[in-house]
UniProtKB/TrEMBL annotation:
Pfam families: Ribosomal_60s. InterPro entries: P1/P2_N_sf, Ribosomal_P1/P2, Ribosomal_P2. Residues 90-100 have a biased composition (Basic and acidic residues). The keyword Ribosomal protein applies. It comes from Electrophorus voltai. This is Large ribosomal subunit protein P2. Plays an important role in the elongation step of protein synthesis. GO terms for biological process: cytoplasmic translational elongation. One of its GO terms (molecular function) is structural constituent of ribosome.
Length: 114
């Protein structure tokens, strides 16, 4: 990732075709030693390609990746008083399951920080 970032910095700086030396200079300025094999791989993959097209192609691939963080909404959302009373019972069951899993961890005979 650092090699790609340095390559992009060089392109943004106006160098349309950065060399290995250019990227090594960028990485060296922040104290990173470049691995020639990885550096040459990045240069060979990106050499001669328009960075904007490469980034747009990557963005279209990322669009299909789930980002997480979304909360699933139940189809039978509580709309009255009776379903709302069921929610605390469900929470109690979850708490009981958590307690059981914590107890089973204690049976192993050692702790994380022992």
């Amino acid at each position: 990732m650092r090699y790609v970032a340095a390559y992009l910095l060089s392109v943004l700086g106006g160098n349309t075709s950065p060399s290995a030396k250019d990227i090594k200079n960028i990485l060296g300025s922040v104290g990173i030693e470049a691995d020639d094999q990885r550096l040459n791989k990045v240069i060979s993959e990106l050499n001669g390609k328009d960075i904007n097209e490469v980034m747009n192609a990557g963005l279209s691939k990322l669009a299909s990746v789930p980002a997480g963080g979304a909360v699933a909404v139940s189809a039978s959302a509580p709309s009255g008083g009776a379903p709302a009373a069921e929610a605390p019972a469900a929470e109690e069951k979850k708490e009981e399951k958590r307690e059981e899993s914590e107890e089973s961890d204690e049976d192993m005979g050692f702790g994380l920080f022992d």
